[in-house]
Amino acid sequence: MRREILLGVLYSDLLGFHTYDYARHFLSSCTRILSFPTMPNGVEFEGRLAHVGTFPIGIDPTSFTKACFFFLYSSLCKKLTLEICAPIEPGEGVRSETYHRS
Fold first, then answer.
1. Which stretches within 1-102 are classed as H helix?
2. CA 91 from chain center: how many Å?
3. φ and ψ at residue 72, rounded to 5 degrees
4. pLDDT, tens digit, for every residue of 15-39?
5. What is the mean pLDDT of the chain?
6. pLDDT of 8 over the 80 cut
7. pLDDT band at 9 (very low <50, low <70, confident <90, very high)
8. What distance in Å separates the CA atoms of residue 91 and residue 5, rounded to the nearest whole number?
9. For the chain, first and last CA: distance in Å?
10. CB 23 within 8 A of CB 17
11. Which end of the chain is more exposed for a tag (fewer CB within 10 A), N or C?
């Protein structure tokens, strides 16, 4: 199964990994499992080079925290609205006598 996965991935022109260690591990897997020649920037496959690169990306923690809070707050508001402001069935409204003082 590993062999098939590696071969399938190698049809890409560019393979990006989050860290250098992940890219290095991929290259060593191609050498060990497929016996393909590798270079630090790619793998020779079917007469061409499948380029391998490291592209560290991340998220802005402040924006992520705000988004989580917004969705948590939004779902909590919906839940409370459904519990507190449950729809009134026809005929269950407040009687007018309730508003009159004796």
1. 2-9, 20-34, 61-84
2. 48
3. -65, -45
4. 999 999 999 999 999 999 999 999 9
5. 81
6. yes
7. very high
8. 65
9. 84
10. yes
11. C
